[in-house]
Amino acid sequence: MDIGFSSYHNGGPTREQDFERLSQTIGTSIMKISQNVSSMQKMVSQLGGSTDSQELRSQLHQIQHYTQQLAKDTSAHLKDLTNLANNSGGSSPGEQRQRKMQRMKLHDEFGSALNSFQGVQKLAASKEKEMVRKAKASVPLPPYREKKQETLIELQDNRAQKQLQQQHQQEEQNLRMLELQEANIRQLESDINDVNQIFKDLGAMVHEQGEIIDSIEASVERTEVFVNEGAQELRQASTYQSKLRKKKCILLIIGVVVLTILIVIICWQSSS
Questions:
Q1: Distance from C-alpha of 213 to C-alpha of 224, rounded to nearest angstrom
Q2: Mean pLDDT score of the chain, rounded to an integer?
Q3: Position 15 confidence tier, pLDDT thresholds 50, 70, 90
Q4: pLDDT of 35 above 60
Q5: Angstrom distances, CA of residue 266 to CA of 216, 252, 253, 255, 257
Q6: How far apart (Å, rounded) are the C-alpha atoms in residues 129 and 144?
Q7: DSSP string of 211-258?
Q8: Among 19, 147, 149, 223, which residue's beta carbon has the most beta carbons within 10 A?
Q9: CB 180: neighbour CB atoms within 10 A?
């Protein structure tokens, strides 16, 4: 997967666009990995069952190989994204913090998808190994096959000869299938080791930026606390002001009533 990020290589003015495009590419790849893992899980559940077939195994190996390469490409893109985030000197502190948080979010999502992928890889390898073990137990040993071949030459009955030939051909085909399965298992185990290396690379990237991210998260948490405290104080002040206005209105009404009563009394006394 080759993406041309000119500003990343040349230090051009579109570094922000490069970061967003690369982030989007990584996000899409992670989603595709998760979708492939879901498909693989369905295929693996059919291995050894009534719906098992050579076509199913071939499809499983193809999607596994494609997802393996996609995981490698995504890991490489995450490294590029880290470099972009670390070389964003012209960005404001707020933009740098947002980039780092976005990058860590992609790290977490990729790690989760990678873990699911490796889980289904191990399950597939385990099932295929068990199938090979059972198949080998049911295939006659080479000396026995050679003895059958000698018997085949000695037999005069054409039907018996034909039956033994077909059986011999079937055994040879079964052996070739076993060899193919064993080769696929070796490739799958190699891919599992590659995923382990991707995990190590991912862990190294997280470790390198861990302290920075922790300080950013702590700052964000402190800011949220200050904002919440400030909002609470504003609400309390608003409540106090509202109560104070109500008290003033009540006192004013009482004063008007008292003044009215006094005026009425004075007027009544004057008229008397």
A1: 16
A2: 75
A3: low
A4: yes
A5: 74, 21, 20, 16, 14
A6: 24
A7: HHHHHHHHHHHHHHHHHHHHHHHHHHHHHHHHHHHHHHHHHHHHHHHH
A8: 19
A9: 14
